[in-house]
Amino acid sequence: MEGYALFSELEEYNLKRYGLNETKMKTLIDGGEIEAKVIGNRYNRTYISIKSVENYIQKVITIRNNYFTLEEAFIKISGKPIRIDSSGLHNFIEQAGLELLELDIPITRKERTFVKRSSCDRFLEEYFSLIEAYKELGLDIELKAFRDNLLKQKIKILELQNLYECKFVKKEDVYRKYRDIITIQECREILSITNENLREAFKAYGIEPFFSNGTNLNISKDDFHLLKDLQEKSLNELMKTTYTLSEVEVFHNEIGTSKPDDDALKRYEIQGAITPLLRVEKYKYKKVLYDKKGIDEFIERMRIERKISDLYNTIMDYPLLLQQVLEVENVQFCENLKITKELWFQYANQTLRKMTGNRDSCLNKITSLKNATKVITNFAKTKELLTFSEKEMNLGIFNKKIPKKHQGHIYAFLYEVVSSIEHNTGKKVLNLSKLNFERQSIKQVKSKSKETYDLEEYMSLYNYVKDYKLHKESAINGIKGIQGQKDLKNGKLYKKYDSMWLYVLLHINNGWRKGTVVDFPRYPSHHFNKFNLTSIESLECLLLTMEDAEQIVRFYQAQWFEHNKTHEKATFYCSSELKLPMAYAILICEYRVRNFHIHDESNLINFYNKKNEVFAGTHDHFFKNYKDEFQFESRKMNRTVLTITSSIIASALNGDPILIAKHLRGHTQTETTNIYIQVPQEHLDSITEQLFDTGYFGYVYQKVNALLLGESSTNKIDTTRHSIELKELLGDVVKLEDMASYLNVLSKRQEELGTYLEELSKEELKSRLNLINLGLSPAKEETYQCFFSTCIAQKTECNKCPFSIPHFYSLSTICRRMRRILSNYKEIAYRDDVPIGEKTKLYNLLLMDFSTIAEAKQKFGREIIEMFMDLDFNGFIKGLEELPDPQEELLLI
User: Fold this and answer.
1) Are 474 and 431 contained in the same domain?
2) Using one digit for the tens of pLDDT, what is the confidence trace for 723-741?
3) How many other CB atoms sit within 10 Å of the CB of residue 383?
4) Is the domain of 287 the same as that of 331?
5) Which residue stretches of 760-801 are H helix?
6) What is the C-alpha separation between 340 and 66, in angstroms, rounded?
7) Which one of 79, 174, 363, 671 has the largest count of C-beta atoms within 10 Å of its C-beta?
8) What is the four-CA torsion angle of 191, 193, 194, 200, rounded to 10 degrees?
9) Taking the model in full, what pTM does it have?
10) To 10 degrees, the CA torsion angle through 768, 769, 773, 775?
11) Do residues 733 and 877 both lie within one domain?
12) Taking the chain, what is the end-to-end CA distance rounded to the nearest angstrom?
């Protein structure tokens, strides 16, 4: 047959060279690689296509020219034979980017799988073995250490076998890490950060230093540039968006205030922004920064308030004063409101001229009119006020967001204008009855409900909510069924027991309205995490000590709150019996927020309805184990607490209405003092402890209590501990004559003070202690009480007066002052040009404040002091111990 031949006739092609024998030929024919025909009747003979044989031979030649066998490839790569069935072989081929060719029918036994020669060459161009890399770099470290450094640097090592000559790294990676390097010392100097901060930066960004030639640790220049770029970019960002405390203090000085209010600044604090990489220049010793935009707005508000305060103090013409205040605050009517503007100022000026009260009342009226003017100008920007519909006015003015006082002025203005228009023209321009504002007569205001709970009801409810074992179990059971955020609004599944418990607890001790109560803030992570509450089971097993509870309560007592209605400053109080219930309720609520609703809530109490109100189902579920038909009302409890408070104060002050009103300012209206609840003598001490914050400390307070109650062993131990702490701090300082003299003066002053107090009658001491505990013996400074009802040392600061009694809230000021004095002393301690007398004065002030802080630590605990100081207490003491004593200089003269 033409073009076909028997196998025996194909000898000229040297078939054996290409792995072809009769058996192989049959396999290729069966596999369709070679074409053949079978001819014969009795005996079949196979005729093979000569063309297909030639094609196959050409294919084998091409493969052998362009591909290595696996064995050849790995000898080429590693210089030695490799077992083809070696584990990790396929991983290596894939990672190395080697191109494989696998034949279904092998050419020979060893020629089934091939590696493309060009991919082998490319691999050898890009990679070298660990041994080759090690030798080329000429490193002074062991080969194993070199391998470990590569792994730490996250350089990928391809492993063919567990031999250094069979482990390969990319040349580019190695050169970048080991040829372009910089020493750690050079890196630190350029970045201008300490070794410790540099180590922290390496850790944060996964950079592993390594040894190259010599003994110096190095990092790659790529890593260095990464750090340098990050530092420059982050510092620029901080400069644009933040201020340091020093910069904020400069702004305060510019507007004439002595120092910023820490409590006011807290809302603008940015924690954790200064990473170790950024601790340079002005950020070197800072922990906290402040939001620049927020501070700018805050300072601008203060600047405006300062200008307004100056106007209030100088201008006596009230209509002119209102105009000046509006100008300072840039409150302006739009051009489209010429008629509204003219009529409004006619009303405002007429109102101001009618005023007959004292100066403060008149200024309050101006402030109120100013705010009402703001409401009108913000609402009516495009057209005259009277052209708006009643519905539009309700949406923009007569709603819950606008205080009633502002609404009252606007309603009175509208009433006058509308009445005048209707009287003169007969035209009805506005239906006042459709506005959401109830104009009350004087009689209606006076007849407003003054309902309160009686004392027995109050005490009964107090005893019910303090049962923390009952309520803890019920509150935890209430959140057990919650699986996700949707369940929080499922009234059948979740009854909001935890929120209701905290809601009632806050009402019991504080004269707060519900708006203030439901805004009660979250418990911070760094405090909450200490309890390791990671599951419902851990919550159920939680057993708080009284010390734990006090730490939780003290955190909130250190905060300033704001009365929702009056916007006056408010403080949080919790009696000793309610500390454990309060702490459990706070932690359970915080657990619920963290696990199911963390991104949407800034407060602990949430009833998960539009107005965050207590619905009947939640109320009835909480009080199901209490009295039948009982109804808890926020306003009623608010009035009850304030009324009992005013009744106790009235008893202490023999009913002096001026002092009563002074104590209750910011908490209630004067009408509250017209109600009286008789508190029996046997309940007086208990009720007083529940409603009045007795967080006072110091020598006078302790001494008076000791004289009335008898000095307990605890007091003696505390006094001894305080003396020991002071002595340990001072060390041998007391041996120096001037310092010893100063300390003797302090000691003698306390001794004389104690003698004076001992000479007073117990009746006199008890009367003064009651006034102090009730907050009715105020000193010149807000966070102090004075032993005398009238100050006897007007020119002496409270912190330096022996008769002043510091309160828990004074710790913020004391700690801040002590840190400032410490900073000032450190600046001059080693300067020869500063007189010793000035150094001694600062040092003595430091000791005086430290003595006060040490007393407070005994009463409130170390953690509370550290919270106010924003420092570790032991570290602070160590810093004090290292200070040079100014009197030592005299010994050298």
Assistant:
1) no
2) 444 444 444 333 333 444 4
3) 12
4) no
5) 762-773
6) 93
7) 174
8) -90
9) 0.42
10) 20
11) yes
12) 128
